Amino acid sequence: MSRAQEPHRPFLLFGNPFRMILPKGSHLSPKLLALLNNFEETLAVRLKKLKPAEKEDVLRLSWMISAMVALCEIHTDIKTLITALELPVSDWEDKWIDVYLANSVKLLDIGISFSSEVARLKQGHLYLQCVLHNLSSGSSSQFVRARSSLDGWSKHIASKNLRLDNCFSVMDSLVQMLDEPKVKNSSKGKVLMRAMYGVKVVTLFICSIFAAAFSGSPKKLMDLPVPESYLWAGEFMAIQAFVNTEIRSIYSSRSFTILKELEDVDTKAKNLYPIVQEDGLVPNETGVLKQSTLDLKNSVEIFSEGLDDLTKELDRFFQIVLTGRDALISNLRIGGDAFDQVRSSNSGKNLVR
């Protein structure tokens, strides 16, 4: 970007959705309190481990993979908590079911959007493979094809993924749903809603980072305030401030991408392009060509491996969310009446990978 981005204002301007889910005077049994504390303490540990050691680590594919691994672990933690609460599906209030199913559909949509962007980047990788293949012979007759592939890479990587626009609107709607339903007569329900709030906040934060990395814009970064009463609040606010500040700083000084492996590959491709402009090489350019080709090859390998690993974690996240949703729907079918109440608004949505 040619100029620094203004700090993004918090999305949450619609009242105070961060009130305590457990109001003053509420009491939990020792067992429930232990389950809740264990969940929140574990969430704090996961956030602490995720914080990049150095600014340079922010938005490397390796760190984004770690972020997705952490997100998978956190969503597995909430499934474990639900099991430990021994809260029968018949005791779930309709509004809890609506929130859970609506959120899960939106998370699946986001996962699909991110996976489509990774797939698009992999398609661009094919152009670079053609470049390396054409230059491997060392014959200047292959330069025309190499130039064509480099042009194809540049055009492809500069194109936009329209599916990301859908992802942005879905994320905005999730922010509007952060305010969990009030729970009046169920201590287990209060624990569940409080834990789910933490999962949603961290999920939105990580998804907003991916959105910034893939879209080429920091506009969708989220600055989410969290009350200090949550045991994970301190670690969350620390990593959010660290990562968001660094991303905005990077965007203020770069015009192409902040995904660092992608930027490295593009730089190596641009370095190679002038060398293959002519159909013949003078002797002192031969060594330059070989070194530039090797540099591109090394960067492409790192980039490709990172995309493969990120794809695996995105698929794992999709499956974790999908299986949790399917398990609830399956139990609702057994209950019959409860399922009929939510089927019309949730089960008619088709998911296409």
From TrEMBL:
It is found in: Membrane. The chain crosses the membrane at residues 197-217. One of its GO terms (cellular component) is membrane. Coiled coil: none annotated. It holds the Pfam family ROH1-like. Keywords: Membrane, Transmembrane, Transmembrane helix. It is a single-pass membrane protein. InterPro entries: ROH1-like (IPR008511). Belongs to the ROH1 family. This is Protein BPS1, chloroplastic-like. The lineage of its organism: Eukaryota, Viridiplantae, Streptophyta, Embryophyta, Tracheophyta.
